[in-house]
Amino acid sequence: MSLTVRYHWTSPLREALAKSVEKREKLWKKFPVVSHDVDLRAKLWAEVAEELMEQFDVLIDTEDMKKTWKNLKDNYWRIIKAFDTEPERAMRWKFYEAMRFMERANTDEPPSRRSHGFDPHNVPSSSSCKPQHPRTAEELLDETDIKNSYVQSPSQATLREMPLQLKGMSGNGRKRIRRRGPNKPPDFVQISIPELDRLISTKQRPPFGTQIQSMPVDLTEDNLTFEMEPVWKQLEEEAKAKLKAERALRAALNSQKQAAEWARRISQEDENTEGKLGVAADDNKFSDLIKIAQLNYKLDEEAQAMIMKKTTRLRGIYHQGAFALFVKQGMPQGKLQKLLDAFDDFVYNKKPKDPIILEVVETCDPSVHDAFLALFSIVERYAGELNLRYNVPESDNRWARMDKESKIEVNTKEHKRAQHKRKAKYDLAEPDAAEHQPIVNRIAHDILTKKIKEYTATMTSTQDLLSTVDYNDHQTRRNLVEKLKRTQDVIEKITKEQRELDVQYREFQCKQSAKISKPQKRRMVSDTARDSEEVTTPIAATDLLESKEATSIVTELFDNTVKNEPQ
């Protein structure tokens, strides 16, 4: 399948294409005859594409690359035809120098040194010269560059007796040459040259003017190269694996099979959060608290302020976990207050730790377990230095804020009674239950509403993923459908729990209204009618879920005087 072209043939990419094609004469040289070997040409074009992909890190389409090369070649010949009459036009073309090697397409001339009188076939033989002393390849190359031609040197041996090495290419490290006696000829070893091997395998000859030099033997063992060879090999494998992964990711955009595999992998990552209270929190926000617990840290004012802030945050999470455990196990009324007091008695009042605290912590999100253990360790270690109850600000202390609000409410009622010269003759039964029941219902409604929103979002994303999967991929579609069913079951279960809480709240309202006489009811209605902001209308939670109304309207079901848990 041909890949969709996701790149543009920029000027650097076209120049690199011309240079890469220049190395492979079978693709462009017509002398003595152009190659018609289809397999060989396909192999050479594949090498060009691979070289461009490694250099520019893009996916190259072979057919598109051939069209681009043909366009460059046609433009070059058009420019050449106009060269005699308009030489400036040819010079202005930005690819003129890169495509100038096409002048040798119909001739057998060498690629360079033509203007300097260089004749690659007229290389003098040095077989009759006896070598006097060995010299390095660099010395031979420097001498050749100075003379700008092949010159007979006494240090050169016969080409048939020496291994070959291209100029500009080095073996596995050039080493020093030991001086030998004048009568002892130097020894040589055969080395592998990938460039020559490639030219031989593709039936090409090296470009004219390539200088061939000899490499003498160095008997010194290269231990460093031998020891570092595994390291270079590992780095090369890692680089290839990274490049392969990037290409696979790009190819997945055009491959339906790989896209289905990606969808299957995503569908298998099913999070089982049933029975756990999810807390959207950063795992590192309690890192300072954990660090103090692990080290013998000296508490200063800054550390105590930080501990006080983190304790307040953990206290709010603990209250949510306590209510989740209360609802999950169906505990009797009044048990929730014991769960809440157990944390305050241990952390603030310095009483022994109740084992029930650990049960509540297990119900919370696993990401905060270490933070709770760190807090308990700090409280036990610095019991004489910490006094968290008095360090908690009133704005962050929910119970102190509730007491203050209750006092304000009592003073307001007494002021109204004095103004109207009336004295209340009734008192609510079970003040503790009347105080804590609205708190329980409010926390319950917020938690269940949040869970319903999360699972609804999960269902929406799963349905979108299901619409992108191929109909023939039955396994992936079956997994996604099962995930939708599980999510729907969880939503129904949470909705059922919410309805039970609504029933309990209605029963609570009926009990409270039954304990008040008719004159008292009329007096209560007349007092509450003066303040329109305190009037609330009972709304069924199930009806709100069906109509998908805002959460702010749903919270009016509960007592407006109860504040949210400090976060």
Describe this structure in words.
The chain is mostly helical and 567 residues long. Among the domains are: 11-108, no CATH class; 287-392, no CATH class; 400-557, no CATH class. Helix content is 56%, strand content 1%. The protein has helices at residues 11-22, 38-56, 62-81, 87-92, 137-147, 194-201, 223-252, 256-268, 287-294, 301-329, 335-347, 356-363, 369-381, 388-391, 398-420, 431-468, 474-514, 518-529, 541-547, 551-554, and strands spanning 165-166, 212-213. Helix 10 crosses helix 16. The longest helix is centred in the last third of the chain and has 41 residues, at 474-514. It starts with 10 loop residues before the first helix and ends in a 13-residue tail after the last helix.
Tell me briefly what this model is.
The protein is mainly α and 567 residues long.
For the termini, the CA-CA separation is 55 Å
Give the count of helical stretches.
20
Shape: elongated
Please state roughly what percent of the residues sit in beta strands, choosing from under 5%, 5-15%, 15-25%, 25-35%, 35-45% or over 45%.
Answer: under 5%
Whole-number average pLDDT?
Answer: 67
Output the helix-strand order: HHHHHEHEHHHHHHHHHHHHHH
- Report the C-alpha radius of gyration, rounded: 43 Å
